[in-house]
Write a structure and sequence with these properties.
Helix content: 40-55%
Number of domains: 2
Oligomer: single chain
Distance between the termini: 27 Å
CATH class of the largest domain: Mainly Alpha
Largest sheet: 4 strands, mixed
Bound molecules: glutathione
Number of strands: 4
Order of helices and strands: EHEHEEHHHHHHH
Strand order of the largest sheet: 2-1-3-4
Strand content: 5-15%
Radius of gyration: 17 Å
Shape: globular
Length: 215
């Protein structure tokens, strides 16, 4: 069985949980507490598995893989049905562009280690860190809303069924809500609301995880 090293509130882990659920694959969750004892992601045992010291980490037999977008690509190759990436080359490229806008441009600026560094090393207080989060999440999602507005509305990010873009968008909106960064974004919110009705998204929600509320 696949194993997923995950933290309940990690948006990157949440992305992969949604994708695994959409693929209908069973997996075992192994919680990694990102805050306890300075962060279990830095423990010797976890570093031996993932020197990047980040979650998620997918383990398939002897094969361990970090980085959520690489995990998506692995899942798509290993379990092609149902397809979570468009077949059309341009639509697929746009979908990965949206995934990367979230994974490369927004989430890294809200990551635990960055916030810790801002507070503990650079002396930025809580109000400053909150302003930071709201600023970067805000402009990141503004850009995605603008992109959505420029094309015809679809039920999900790319068409009539969820793709990896929806797997990224829903956790990013969860983080925006958590950090008080939410703005209007009518298109993004409509897609997120539709996704949130689907069982694959419901059971991947942070509050539904075995390690939830133990922060
Ligand atoms: N680009 C990576 C980012 C992974 C990442 O930043 N994970 C966060 C949780 S969402 C983490 O493990 N943070 C631990 C830390 O900051 O020390 C991915 O997409 O998987």
């Amino acid at each position: 069985m696949l194993k997923l090293y995950s933290y309940w509130r990690s948006s990157c882990s949440y992305r992969v949980r949604i994708a695994l659920n959409l693929k209908g694959v069973e997996y075992q969750t192994i919680p990694v507490h990102l805050l306890r004892d300075g962060g279990e992601q830095h423990s010797a045992a976890y570093r031996a598995l993932n020197p990047q010291q980040l979650v998620p980490l997918l383990v398939d037999g002897e094969f361990a893989l970090g980085q959520s977008l690489a995990i998506f690509q692995y899942l798509e190759a290993r379990l092609p049905q149902p397809a979570l990436a468009p077949r059309d080359a341009q639509a697929a490229a746009r979908m990965w562009s949206l995934c990367q806008a979230i994974a490369c441009e927004i989430q890294p600026l809200q990551n635990t280690r960055l916030l810790k560094h801002l507070g503990e090393v650079l002396g930025v207080d809580e109000a400053g860190r909150t302003a930071w989060l709201r600023h970067w999440i805000g402009i990141g999602l503004d850009a995605l809303e603008e992109e959505m507005q420029a094309r015809q509305a679809t039920p999900f990010c790319f068409g009539d069924a969820p793709t990896y873009a929806d797997c990224c968008l829903v956790p990013q909106m969860y983080s925006a809500e958590r950090f008080g960064a939410v703005k209007e974004w009518p298109r993004l919110k409509a897609i997120v609301a539709r996704c949130r009705e689907l069982p694959a998204f419901v059971s991947a929600h942070p509050e539904r995880q075995m390690d939830a509320q133990k922060a």
